[in-house]
Amino acid sequence: MRIETFTLGPLQTNCYLITEDTGKRAFVVDPGMGPKRLIERIRERGLTIEAIVLTHAHFDHMAGVEDMRQAFGCPVYLHDEEADWLEDARKNGSARWSDVTAPLTTAPAEFALSDGQKLELIGHTFQVMHTPGHSPGSVSLLCDGHLISGDVLFKLSVGRTDLPGGKERDLFDSIRMKLYKLDPAVRVYPGHGPQTTIGFEMANNPYVPA
């Protein structure tokens, strides 16, 4: 499995292009604002995009959904707690950030994600972990020692909880009771900033010490 990072938009959101080791199957996590480079890369490599998976539906993580749908005809997966956020600019936050973007909406997701779900993509099984706190429907994806954490856990930081639907207690519980239970060697791919590992965060994260 290969994970390629594209940092998109004014909020520097990490979008991940995940491909099988050999062959042409791939899927995308969190296509943010201005996904032109991502789309060009997919076309250059002749990839078939099986899905778009959203760790959550804040605008900086979903702004490129419609461009991706139009380019590749791929379905979208999103947790049910945020099922209506793609259609509501107030809930996805774009209506609140007029200095960054115009209000953004898109059609709803085709498929729902749920805690413990086994998502079969590109010949691999990804475990869906419901990790609320930053937003009510935040999820993390785990596969073969790799964790896509969205805006839950960052290197030496955590996701903000002052946006609508955010809850600090839920965020800390998600990190301590779920993410910190993983193998310390698991590599974390966050929604913003550099990669880290579970073990490094357990030992060094100033917001949620182990």
Please give the structural blueprint:
Blueprint: E1 2-8, E2 13-19, E3 25-29, H1 36-45, E4 48-53, H2 59-62, H3 65-72, E5 76-79, E6 111-113, E7 118-121, E8 124-130, E9 139-143, E10 146-150, E11 153-154, E12 157-158, H4 168-177, E13 187-190, E14 196-197, H5 198-204
Parallel strand pairs: 3-4, 4-5, 5-6, 10-13
Antiparallel strand pairs: 1-2, 2-3, 7-8, 8-9, 9-10, 11-12, 13-14
Catalytic activity: 3',5'-cyclic CMP + H2O = CMP + H(+); 3',5'-cyclic UMP + H2O = UMP + H(+)
Domain Metallo-beta-lactamase: 12-192
Protein name: MBL fold metallo-hydrolase
Summarize it.
The chain is of the alpha/beta class and 210 residues long. The protein is 19% helix and 30% strand.
Lateral strand order in the biggest sheet: 1-2-3-4-5-6
Q: Output mean pLDDT.
A: 96
Strand content: 25-35%
Shape: globular
- How many extended strands? 14
Rg of Cα set = 16 Å
Name of the level-1 CATH class:
Alpha Beta
Number of domains: 1
Order of helices and strands: EEEHEHHEEEEEEEEHEEH
Tally of individual helices: 5
First-to-last CA distance: 29 Å
- Helix-strand makeup class: alpha/beta
Looking at this structure, what is the CATH superfamily?
A: Ribonuclease Z/Hydroxyacylglutathione hydrolase-like
DSSP helix fraction: 10-25%
Uncertain ranges: none
What's the story with the biggest beta sheet? 6 strands, mixed
The CATH topology annotation reads as Metallo-beta-lactamase, Chain A
Architecture, CATH level 2? 4-Layer Sandwich
Catalytic activity: 3',5'-cyclic CMP + H2O = CMP + H(+); 3',5'-cyclic UMP + H2O = UMP + H(+)
Protein name: MBL fold metallo-hydrolase
Domain Metallo-beta-lactamase: 12-192
Cofactor: Zn(2+)
